[in-house]
Specification:
- By secondary structure, the chain is mostly helical.
- The chain has 16 helices and no strands.
- Helix 3 packs across helix 7.
Length: 391
């Protein structure tokens, strides 16, 4: 009879059949990667790449979009004059050229006048600077019982020459950046001017092209909105021109009374800057005549500063809200809010374009928003006792 092997030896033999069975067993569904996950990851990466590309393109093109917007509003402002000349038989291209040449001539004339004023002012200030320093030092010595001299001031200035040299070095380092800024600004102005000419000269073709993309039922609404934009933008510029005339005459007369040289030229400077630079235009314009007054009678600089502050208050709260509201039909509070919002979004350009854009939108919506008749009720006017009695 054969002897059986011990039980321990039987257990030490590898169970190859069991191992093969474990290797051939497919993984459970829970441990397998979903089929859709790789595709979803690729799609997510593609969408992220497209978003980054669109974000980059938007940041790069925002400047061009702003320039095109400014050019469009300039063309809206120039179109009434061009349309009037075209209605009298003048070729539209020639009429556009005439209008823009007149505007360009006025702008160049203002810049030349400004340059002459600044050169004369700087020259006068430099000529009178020694006398002004002597008078200032004498006033300080008399008021504060000191014994300063011009020589001490000069020595102190040269002693701190390292500060001056550091300022000069920083200014020299910023010359290249400043020149690039000036050249870039000039290029933007030229670009805006060219597109404004094209949009004005080809206004009918532009409107026809826009309308060709819309169904006939919507073309009338677009053309009506376009007409409103032309009317409101022209009204806005008219109001600004009226404010400029009032400011120029007022400041010119005041400076003439004080005996300031080039009073009415400075008045024109006041009118343009104070009217077309929102909020702080009058304060910026006041720097030039104040410098002139300091070289003649310093006390006149104080009077000019007081007059500038008072006039700015009158223009902001009396003249501008009334004139702007009448010419572009915008509530004074809404006009002020639109300027603030436009300035916050697009800076000075947004502040200048905010009122005509708001007026156009308001006029367009007012024709399509339904309004109801309001019954007479003392609670509307809040007429004191009547309102309480009604309650």
């Amino acid at each position: 009879m054969a002897a059986h092997p011990p039980a321990a030896e039987q257990n030490d033999e590898p169970d190859t059949g069991s191992a093969v069975q474990t290797a051939d067993t497919p993984p459970s569904p829970e441990s397998r990667m979903p089929v859709w996950l790789p595709r979803a990851m690729v799609l997510a990466l593609a969408l992220l790449g497209l978003f980054e590309l669109a974000n980059w393109a938007a940041h790069e093109l925002i400047g061009i979009a702003i320039m095109m917007t400014v050019a469009f509003f300039i063309s809206l402002a120039m179109e009434p004059a061009v349309d009037g000349m075209a209605a009298r038989g003048v070729n539209r291209g020639v009429a556009t050229a005439i209008v823009f040449i007149i505007v360009f001539a006025c702008t160049v004339g203002f810049l030349v006048t400004l340059g002459i004023l600044m050169v004369e002012t700087v020259s006068t200030v430099l000529d009178e600077l020694p006398r002004l320093l002597d008078e200032l030092i004498s006033w300080v010595n008399h008021t504060f019982h000191q014994n300063f001299t011009v020589g001490q001031l000069r020595d102190r200035l040269f002693k701190d020459s390292d500060v001056i040299s550091s300022y000069a070095e920083r200014a020299a380092n910023n010359v290249w950046g400043l020149s690039n800024t000036v050249l870039g600004g000039f290029a933007k102005v030229v670009t805006i001017g060219l597109f404004s000419v094209y949009m004005t000269a080809d206004g009918p073709k532009l409107r026809r092209s826009v309308c060709s993309l819309l169904p006939p039922a919507n073309q009338g609404a677009v053309l009506h909105a376009w007409d409103l934009a032309i009317d409101k933008t022209g009204g806005y510029l008219y109001s600004r021109a009226l404010l400029a005339v009032i400011s120029a005459l007022t400041h010119g007369a005041f400076l003439w009374i004080l005996g300031i040289p080039n009073a009415f030229a400075l008045g024109i400077w006041f009118g343009v800057i104070a009217s077309f630079v929102p909020t702080i235009g009058t304060y910026i314009a006041g720097v030039l005549p104040i410098l002139v007054a300091l070289t003649i009678r310093p006390i006149d600089a104080v009077w000019i500063l007081i007059f500038v502050v008072v006039y700015q208050w009158i223009q902001d709260y009396v003249l501008q809200p009334r004139i702007t509201a009448r010419t572009v039909d915008v509530n004074p509070a809404v006009a002020l809010l639109s300027v603030i919002v436009g300035g916050a979004l697009l800076g000075a350009v947004g502040a200048l374009l905010a009122i005509p854009a708001t007026a156009t939108l308001q006029a367009f919506l007012s024709e399509y928003v339904k309004r109801y008749e309001v019954n007479e009720d003392p609670r509307i006017e809040r007429t004191g006792g009547k309102a309480r009695k009604k309650r």
